[in-house]
Amino acid sequence: MGEAEAAIHSIPIETVHFHEVGAVDTIVDIVCAAAGCEALGVDRWQSTPLNVGSGTVKCQHGTLPVPAPATLSLLGDAPVYAAGPSMERVTPTGAAVLRMLNVTYGSLPAMRVEARGYGAGGRDTPGEPNLLRLLVGEAADQAAGAEPIAVIETVIDDSTPQLLAYVSELLLEAGAWDVYRSAVQMKKGRTGVQLTVLSSPDRSPALRELLLRETTSIGLRWRLENKMALDREFAEVETAWGKVRIKIARWPSGTVANASPEYEHCRALARQHGVPLKQVMQEAMRSFAELERLKEGKGR
User: Fold this and answer.
1) I want to staple 49 with a disulfide (CB 3.0 to 4.6 A). Which of 79, 88, 106, 260 is the partner?
2) Measured between alpha carbons, how far is 136 from 221 in angstroms, rounded to an integer?
C-alpha cells in the first residue's frame, strides 16, 4: 500500500464530505435515473457525442474548468466536444449515469421508434432548447440477429512479420473476435500491412491501447458497425478413427446453412492414425450428412 493510499484509508469516515454529490437533488437524480432505466427494460444504450460545454463553474471546491475534473474522469474515452455559449452541459451526475449504463456512442442507429420523451432543464439557453431527448425502440435489423461490432484498423510499414504475428496473438487473447492482416500499397511506393481487429464495442478501448503499445504504429482509426450471424451449434460424429466435432450454422427455419468439421479434431486424428487430413474431414462430413438424414426421418 502506497503512502497516498494509506493516508486515504486513515481518514475517519465522519470527516469525508461528498459536497454537491451528496446533495438531495443529486441523490434524487441518480435514484430516479436508475429506476427509470430499469423500468424501460432496454438492453443497449447509445448516445451521440457529448457537448460538455466550456468556461468555468463555481462549486464548493472553488472555480473549476468545464468540463469539471470529475466529469472528465467519469466519461472515460467517450467522444466529447464543446459548442454554444460557455456553460456546463454535462455534470458529474450525468456522466456517472452514462458510465453506469455502459453507453456506446455514434450517430442515431436505424430503429423503429416505440416511445419518446423529453426532459427540460431549468436554465434558459438563448437561441436553443435546453432539452434532453430519449428514444426507445427496436433496432431495424434486430430480427436478423444484428449486434454492434467495433472495427479497429491501422496501417504499418515498419514492422517485421514476427512482430505482427505476435501482436495478433495478444489481441485474440485480449478478447478480439478476429484479427487479420492485408497487404496494402502506401504512399511513395511503400508496401505496408493493414491490421484489422474485430471486437465487441466494450473491448475496443483496451484493444486500441494494446495496438499502440505493442506495434510501431502511432495512430489508428476505429468505428462501430453492425454484424449478424446465424445460430450456431456443435455436434459430434463418429468416424473410423474417432469422434469429430462438427460446427453447424442453421437458418431461422432450422435447416442447415453450413457445416464444417473442426480442424483441430481432424488434424489430431490424421496425425494419430497416419491418414490424410482430407480423408478424415470427408469421412466426418459423410457421417454428419447421415446423422441429419436420420433426424429428418424421425421428424416425419
Assistant:
1) 79
2) 29
Dist CA 125 CA 147 (whole Å): 37
Which among 106, 200, 107, 212 has a CA at the least distance from the CA of 153?
Answer: 212
CA atoms within 13 A on the CB side of 143: 3
Q: What is the pLDDT of residues 16-39, one digit of tens each?
A: 555 555 567 788 888 888 898 889
Lowest-pLDDT choice from 106-115, 211-220, 239-248: 106-115
Q: How far is CA 24 from CA 21, 61, 99, 156, in A?
A: 9, 18, 21, 53
As a whole number of angstroms, the distance between CA 166 and CA 188 comes to 27
pLDDT at 4 over 70: no
CATH topology of domain 231-299: Ubiquitin-like (UB roll) (3.10.20)
d(CA 121, CA 124): 8
Burial string for 73-87 (b: 16+ CB within 10 Å, else e) reads ebbeebebeeeeeee
pTM, to two decimals: 0.50
Same fold for the domain at 146-227 and the one at 231-299? no
Give 146-227's CATH code, choosing from 3.40.640.10, 1.10.357.10, 3.40.50.2300, 3.30.70.1380.
3.30.70.1380
Domain boundaries, the chain: 3-140, 146-227, 231-299
